[in-house]
Amino acid sequence: MKNLISVPITFAGFSPHYELRSLDADFAIIGVPYESPYLNKQSYSSKNAPATIRQESLRYEKTGNFDFDFNGDLFGGNAIKCVDCGELINRTEPFDKYLQTITNSIKILLNRSTVPIVIGGDHGTSIPVLKAYEAFQDLCVVQIDAHLDWLDERDGVRCGFSSPMRRASELSNVSSIVQIGLRGQGSARQREMDEALACRKSLLIKAEDLHENGVAEGLNRIPTSPYYYVTIDADGLDPSIAPGVGYPTPGGVSYYQLFNILRGLAKKGKLVGMDFVEVVPENDVANLTSLFAARQILNFIGILAHNRQVGY
């Protein structure tokens, strides 16, 4: 891919592989420093998040060491092949072509039976990524986020970070959307809330409900599906573990809540991909948010390895 560039540090020391069409791997890390082209730019950016998360991931490079969260080897002693495919950047092409480049790149990975793990970028990243999953019928999208992300457009832009769940709801292969961690105030107005509630695909689980009723109850409410895609917005997490975001809001999802949501989903169906978005390194404290992102990405791989959910 002409837009794919090599990176000086690979995620957790994984082998680099920058030619997607010759890829032979179980999991592929791919950085997408996506920035929504809104007229009114934010005062912060997630464009450096992939590089910062890669840097922090090196603390976990020794993946063969004993892992208490998995009661042994992170990958369960399985021969799992993980690679880092570098960064997909928009150099000169028009924005709509950049969106298509992202979709095409993820499709290549899926066609090669490789599970994509995307590091954003803002939450607009999820829109072109999800479009690559058109062959996965009855796909359930599980979003960890403080915000609804249901705006139809902002500044005339329909593929920005305010709209990923609205766009996901329009995909014919997506049968359900579960939004976990909702709290506080975001860009949604009553109209967007009403439209989300009216959408037959949508299930909203507020952060307060998760804390009050527990992960098991939340998992019971999630529809059974053959496929699950997980999109994690860093601001869906509690600021005590993820302070490096644009809108830190107290009362978010905790480390083990997210970990156990992922484990529970893997028991309900097949996890076919994930993205981790909206990390803002310039707002972070000792890069804790990037460190957390790196760990949860490894947890995702470890969960699939232990459940032998490798390949399609």
**Helix content, binned percent:** 25-40%
Using the 3D structure, state the CATH architecture.
3-Layer(aba) Sandwich
The arrangement of helices and strands along the chain is EEEHEEEHEHEHEHEHHEHEH
Number of discrete helical segments: 9
Explain how this protein is built.
The protein is an alpha/beta fold and 312 residues long. It has one domain: Arginase, Chain A (3-Layer(aba) Sandwich), CATH 3.40.800. The protein contains nine helices and twelve strands. The protein has helices at 49-57, 95-111, 126-131, 164-169, 190-198, 207-213, 215-221, 255-268, 288-306, and strands at residues 4-5, 15-16, 27-32, 66-67, 72-73, 82-88, 115-120, 139-144, 174-182, 202-206, 227-233, 270-277. Strands 1, 2, 3, 6, 7, 8, 9, 10, 11 and 12 form a ten-stranded mixed beta sheet that branches. Strands 4-5 form a two-stranded antiparallel sheet. Helix 1 packs across helix 9. The longest helix is centred in the C-terminal third of the chain and has 19 residues, at 288-306. The two termini are 23 Å apart. The mean pLDDT is 94.
Topology:
Layout: E1 4-5, E2 15-16, E3 27-32, H1 49-57, E4 66-67, E5 72-73, E6 82-88, H2 95-111, E7 115-120, H3 126-131, E8 139-144, H4 164-169, E9 174-182, H5 190-198, E10 202-206, H6 207-213, H7 215-221, E11 227-233, H8 255-268, E12 270-277, H9 288-306
Helix pairs in contact: 1-9, 6-7, 7-8, 8-9
Primary descriptors:
312 residues, globular, ten-stranded mixed sheet, Arginase, Chain A, 12 strands, 30% helix, alpha/beta, two-stranded antiparallel ribbon
